[in-house]
Amino acid sequence: MSEASDELMGKAAQLRRQNQVAEAIAAYREILARWPKLADAWYNLAILQRQTFQFDEALACYQKALRLGVARPEEVHLNRGVIFSDFLRDHASATAELQQALTLNPAYTPALLNLANLYEDFGKRAEASSLYARILTLEPQAFEALARFANLQPAGSFDDSLIKRLREALITATSMSVRASLGFALGRLLDAAGDYRGAFLAYTAANQASRASAGAHMVPYDRARQQAFIDRLIGGGLSGQRANTSGSSPRPIFIVGMFRSGSTLAEQLLAAVPGVAGGGEMDFLPRLINTELTPFFSASAGLAREQLDAIAARYTAELLRVSASAAYVTDKRPDNFLYIGLIKRLFPDAKIIHTTRDPLDNCLSIFFLHLDQQMSYALNLKDIGHFYREYRRLMAHWKSQFAGDIFDFDYDALIKDPQRELKALCDFLGLPWSGQVPTVAARSAAVKTASVWQVREPLYKTSSGRAQHYADQLTELRDELAGLP
To answer: How do the pLDDT tens digits run along the chain, 485 residues long?
Structure first.
């Protein structure tokens, strides 16, 4: 590199550190126009392109960096693998990239972690468990791998030594994010062992660690703000023109509700019906709302029909990434329940499955799940109860507006009589009902969800009525939920 290129690379890096993404991209393009053989510039440009959702361009730039002999090529293959798995849904290519990274560096633990996670997504418990064990052999202090290894163990198949190992790791670990992962894993094992008091204490500590790990970046749950947001949604803040999407294909089926309400199981059961493909928790709508439709109400209200048509076409293109042949693709992002008004503007004929279950069971399961700290309500049982009440209030409104297009799919009723509930669901969607309950555990499709192993059970019956084991700990939550219809 020359002195001139060094100076420009420094300026581009400074723009990137200042989060001036567009300016940094332009700077790297200018550098590469003059010095097209700078591998680091191609690599840095690819990172920025991935950040701005230019995935094909990022893959191409990463590939150029590889051809030019970039340092740490295993890291480049890892980054390409993440794009393929998390954004492009090309799991075969993701696996190939991760395996190439490990060919270059067999001890590269980030690639081992990501490959193990892919195996989890596909229900390959033994393969994922083996990789986590390999990581722990390479790095005994790799506590994140230990937590994931513990989460893979089927209920009743582990011994007390694993619980002891988690407890010892919690004493040693200094990172709050790692302590959170270990704590949630410990809580799960104690719950499975019937030590409900110990499990609740472990989960409570895990949520506290999760909150601490976010530091100043976490926005605490604000009850008044949530109520005001729901009030505004109910008040008609999303009225306006609608897109013309009656002939679009594939057609979306939206699965919404609280987290841990059975959305993953609903999707897996539907994906066994001919003509339906499972899209998982698609991030299109949240990403749209957090970028183009900000501030949400004014930006949404101002959308012209042509803009709605264009957004719907982009969303349909995302569905085509899932399947080019299916008539329907599911989007099971649960918190899309907030945006049913926008969904019905984009797809006026859209069918919406609203997954429900016992409120106490649902709220407790959220408290026991390691969710992103951005969902700050999930870190406190009383906040979960408040959020749940607001969710129920909003859903009552949506059902008053779109009654014929929203179907309540009750998890507890499904457990009791799966034949009846699945037939009713298929009738609602206009899909053929075979008369047979699908065996979701045998399916090979990827399941991108925190409840990956629960959903691979034929029907997860032990989750229904779970709150009865924690009656003494749920007094405040029960009070928060009192009076719900």
So the answer is: 577 888 899 999 999 999 999 999 999 999 999 999 999 999 999 999 999 989 999 999 999 999 999 999 999 999 999 999 988 888 899 999 999 999 999 999 999 999 999 998 888 889 999 999 999 999 999 999 999 999 998 877 778 999 999 999 999 999 999 999 999 999 999 999 999 999 999 999 999 999 999 988 889 999 999 999 999 999 975 567 899 888 889 999 999 999 999 998 999 899 999 999 999 999 999 999 999 999 999 999 889 999 999 999 999 999 999 999 999 999 999 999 999 999 999 999 999 999 999 999 999 999 999 988 889 999 999 999 999 999 999 999 999 999 999 999 999 999 899 999 999 999 999 999 988 887 764 344 454 555 444 434 444 566 778 899 999 999 999 999 998 87
Among 218, 236, 256, the domain boundary falls at 218
As a whole number of angstroms, the distance between CA 202 and CA 473 comes to: 13
Q: Which domain holds residue 441?
A: 223-481
User: Looking at the domain assignment, is residue 1 inside a domain?
Assistant: no
3-class state of residue 406 by DSSP: strand
- Total domains in the chain come to 2
Q: Coil, strand or helix: which one is 77? A: helix
CA distance to 285, 374, 467, per residue, from 217 (Å)? 23, 9, 32
pTM over 0.90? The answer is: no
Give 406's strand partners: 352
Residue 407's SS3 state is strand
| Residue that is last in its domain, among 218, 237, 259 | 218
Peptide bond into 140 cis (omega under 30): no
Distance CA 390, CA 403 (A): 19
The tokens for 7 are: 């100076």
